[in-house]
Design goal:
Elements lengths: L3 E9 L2 H12 L2 E4 L5 E4 L7 E6 L10 E5 L4 H14 L2 E2 L11 E4 L5 E4 L13 E6 L3 H11 L3 E5 L2 E5 L6 E4 L13 E6 L6 H11 L2 E2 L10 E4 L5 E4 L4
Parallel strand pairs: 1-4, 5-8, 9-12, 13-16
Antiparallel strand pairs: 1-13, 2-3, 3-4, 5-9, 6-7, 7-8, 10-11, 11-12, 14-15, 15-16
Helix pairs in contact: 1-2
Protein name: VOC family protein
Organism: Microtetraspora glauca
Pfam families: Glyoxalase_6 (PF18029)
């Protein structure tokens, strides 16, 4: 039995505004979160929620992970870009080349995401959220494959990707060079133990795979805060 990926969490200076943006882009429903944030519930096969959690910290550099949104046609891509801009996104330059067929945007809090062109074969069988694209090592791709029990669907030139057996987005890692970590990531995973599983047993299993327990000043909370082999934070809750 393996951990369940329950949510992708965004640190947000204005959780409600950020949640409304992503709800508008994705067409997902929002509900109140027990930790003073906002949760978005998937309306497709994504398989995990999005949580926008309050944070006073400002964004200082590129995120370690970002969404790649798919398109069925050039018109569909243009409509997604236009809808995102209308909701509060903006165009940004991350060094993309003119011949590349994806559009790079940032949400209202500066979190990067891409709208991919219709000819992308790697994401051809994926839904609207085609991938969660991450800066990370081959080792961390292997770690998350074991942690979640998701098979590798790509493992070439130190680039890796995994995908749930139930479908949904791929999670990809670009391999070296991996940008040095300069502070807490603004996006992190929330995991839960397997059904009827024990939190401490799952924490021990993740440590055996290469994770570490860390202290980010969380105090006494129901979640255990950990870091993967690349140092990226994630949480293990007591249950789903």
């Amino acid at each position: 039995m393996t951990a369940q990926l329950v949510a992708l969490c965004f640190d947000a200076n204005d959780p409600l505004r950020l949640a409304r943006f992503w709800a508008g882009v994705l067409g997902w429903e929002t509900v109140n979160d027990p930790h003073d944030g906002i949760t978005l519930l998937p309306s497709d096969d994504t398989g995990f929620r999005i949580r926008c959690l309050p944070s006073q910290e400002k964004k200082t550099g590129p995120n370690q992970m970002h969404f790649d949104l798919t398109s069925t046609s050039l018109e569909d891509q243009q409509q997604t870009v236009a809808r995102s801009l209308e909701l509060g996104a903006r165009h940004i330059d991350v060094g993309q080349r003119p011949e590349e067929d994806h559009v790079v945007l940032a949400d209202p809090e500066g979190n990067e995401f891409c709208v991919i062109g219709p000819d992308n074969k790697f994401l051809a069988d994926c839904g609207f959220i085609g991938a969660l694209s991450c800066d990370g090592s081959q080792e961390v791709g292997y770690f998350w494959s074991e942690a979640l029990g998701w098979p590798l669907v790509w493992d070439q030139n130190q680039e890796t990707a995994i995908r749930s057996p139930h479908g949904g987005p791929k999670i990809t890692w670009g391999g070296p060079p991996v940008a040095p970590k300069t502070g807490k990531n603004r996006l992190h995973f929330d995991l839960a133990p397997p059904t009827h599983g024990d939190q401490q047993a799952e924490v021990d299993r993740l440590i055996s795979l290469g994770a570490t327990r860390i202290d980010i000043g969380q105090g006494e909370v129901g979640q255990v805060v950990m870091a993967d082999p690349d140092g990226n934070e994630f949480c293990v809750s007591t249950s789903r």
